[in-house]
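Inverse folding, one chain.
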C-alpha cells in the first residue's frame, strides 16, 4: 500500500511540494483535532521531500554535476526518463511517521517524484508504477521540463495518479492490463 505520492522541487534552496496525494490516514491520537492532523501531515511530507532533495543534491554533486542540469539536449521523453536519478530510503518509526515506511524517489533537474510506501511493499512494483506515472505525467503535462505544471494542471496529475495508483494500491500490470489502463487514462485526461 502506498501512503502518499509527492511531486516536489529538487533545486538547492527551500523545498516546495508542488503536488501531493495521500491515500491512507494514520489514526489520530486522543485530543488531536483535524486541523492539527492536516498541519502535522504537511510537515511530515515536507520532511520526506527535504530528505529526497538532500540525497539528490548529494548524488548530483558527488557525480561532478554543476548547480543546474541542462535538459535542452534531451528531446524525447525516453531520453528524459533514462536520465532520472533514483533512490530509496527507510523512514524509521517516529521519523517522521508513527510507523516505519519506505520512500522511493526519482528526480531530474528541479522535479522530484516520491512514493511513500508501507515497509513491506514490493519495491520493484513500486518503481515500475512510479516510472509509469512519470512517463504519463511527462506525456500529458511536460512536467519534467516545467515542474510548475503540477500546480497548473493538478486535475490531469490527479487523473494520472489515481488511474495508475488506484486508492494507493500498487498493481502488477502485464502489457494487456497496462494497455487497458492507458486507454481509460486517455479518456479521462481528454475529458478534463
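Residues assigned per position:
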Amino acid at each position: 500500500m502506498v501512503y502518499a505520492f509527492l511531486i516536489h522541487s529538487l533545486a538547492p534552496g527551500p523545498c516546495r511540494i508542488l503536488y501531493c496525494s495521500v491515500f491512507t490516514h494514520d489514526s489520530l491520537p486522543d485530543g488531536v483535532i483535524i486541523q492539527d492532523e492536516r498541519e502535522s501531515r504537511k510537515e511530515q511530507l515536507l520532511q520526506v521531500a527535504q530528505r529526497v532533495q538532500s540525497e539528490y543534491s548529494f548524488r548530483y554533486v558527488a557525480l561532478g554535476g554543476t548547480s543546474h542540469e541542462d535538459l535542452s539536449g534531451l528531446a524525447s521523453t525516453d531520453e528524459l526518463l533514462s536520465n532520472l536519478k533514483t533512490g530509496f530510503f527507510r523512514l524509521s518509526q517516529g521519523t517522521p511517521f508513527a510507523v516505519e515506511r519506505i520512500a522511493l524517489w526519482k528526480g531530474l533537474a528541479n522535479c522530484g517524484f516520491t512514493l511513500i510506501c508501507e515497509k513491506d511493499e514490493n519495491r520493484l512494483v513500486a518503481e515500475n508504477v512510479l516510472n509509469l506515472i512519470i512517463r504519463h505525467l511527462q506525456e500529458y503535462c511536460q512536467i519534467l521540463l516545467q515542474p510548475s505544471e503540477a500546480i497548473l494542471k493538478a486535475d490531469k496529475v490527479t487523473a494520472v495518479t489515481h488511474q495508475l495508483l488506484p486508492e494507493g494500491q500498487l498493481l502488477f500490470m502485464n502489457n494487456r492490463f497496462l494497455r487497458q489502463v492507458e486507454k481509460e487514462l486517455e479518456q479521462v485526461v481528454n475529458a478534463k
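Helices lie at 34-62, 77-82, 123-141, 149-152, 154-164, 175-191. The radius of gyration is 17 Å.
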